[in-house]
């Protein structure tokens, strides 16, 4: 497993005012990569919950994971997420990787406990949507990522910005999809370090506000 080396010392605070982050896995399930990314947030002092909406299943490829998603149905996965987090008190930050971004995005739109949605390697809407003004939105993906649907991120970003929400959009070089997952061939250290710097910066701002 590769080690994420972003300098976390400047994000550590002693007043206990850190975020509770719901961190949702990608289509391959709650694997070692998700745990490594969640640990980066924990090392910065945050509480991280990693709901397993695949019921313990992990897959070796995105194609296998997507086949399972389609077999079970997205609605069932959403129901599993809702059940897993129903007793968690807010405020929280919803974050997700790839498919997990869809879960984080949905919570950002609909769940009043969520004060920020962090969408890593995915995100977007087919048309403008209602976005709450008090929920920050931050998106990260590679500029040539083949899994990103043209135009859909812009619909979401404009919806959040028009609502008055803090809205941040970051593009990274290349076509790597899971570039911040240190266990995947897609991993790009330079992009991952920069992404974490931006994510932790937003979380610090939230915790100070």
From TrEMBL:
Keywords: Hydrolase. GO terms for molecular function: hydrolase activity. It holds the Pfam family DLH. SUPFAM superfamilies: alpha/beta-Hydrolases. Residues 21-204 form the Dienelactone hydrolase domain. It comes from the Bacteria. Gene3D superfamilies: alpha/beta hydrolase. This is Dienelactone hydrolase and related enzymes.
